[in-house]
Amino acid sequence: MVPAPNAGSIRFTPLVLLIYDWYVIRISAPHIWKCSTKKFLLPFFVENFSKRHIDIGVGNGYFPITSLSKIQASEGAQRDQHITLVDLSQHSLDSAKQRILSHHPKVDVRTVLADAAKPMPAALDGEKFNSASQYLLLHHMPGPTAAKAQAFTVARQHLTDDGVLFGATVLGKVWEKTPEGYRVKTEAKVRGIASFALGFYNKRGVFDNYGEDPNVFEDVLRREFEEVESHIVGMVFFFKARRPRT
């Protein structure tokens, strides 16, 4: 059965994917969400990206493409790489696969049309990966934080015993990490272009993140994994979880 798209996934049209690098990577991340792609998003991806990887929520393939280029430059040769791409948008899957192969033709790439928060289709039964990414995905998914966090449970089921799940999502408020957990910074309200962008995207269903709570994300991650790390840069919540619980 073909999974039903949501308002966030159907926005990834060929035109949007064409300008993805410029708008999402170069403009939105550093200037609207105050989280530099070059300093934070890309290094975090490279650090956790394994030779057998599943990318859940693919955009246009920017992060695996650029990570492979950086790894190749540092190692002096292209590594033996498999990537399974999972997304609700067929446009995104086709675009990402084409772009990955155009830059790295020796990479083994497979695409799977699926909902990140629901069990993966039969094509992935028994498949295990050393790493899984959910990059700039969760803020597009509809529903409360706990429902979105089902994506962690799904990903955990497809990781090896020492596998790692990592990701980043744009939050709908200004949060900070304290010794007691995350809290909203009431003295630092979202203003200016970030406030406008959040209102615009949430009203149209592109985002559904006003109610996202990083404490809930972390609680679910700790339920599913032995080791969990998280932090915030600007308005972006980063997470990394290792050693899936059985």
TrEMBL record:
It comes from the Eukaryota. Pfam families: Methyltransf_11. GO terms for molecular function: S-adenosylmethionine-dependent methyltransferase activity. This is Methyltransferase type 11 domain-containing protein. Residues 55-165 form the Methyltransferase type domain. InterPro entries: Methyltransf_11, SAM-dependent_MTases_sf. Signal peptide: none annotated. It comes from Dactylonectria macrodidyma.
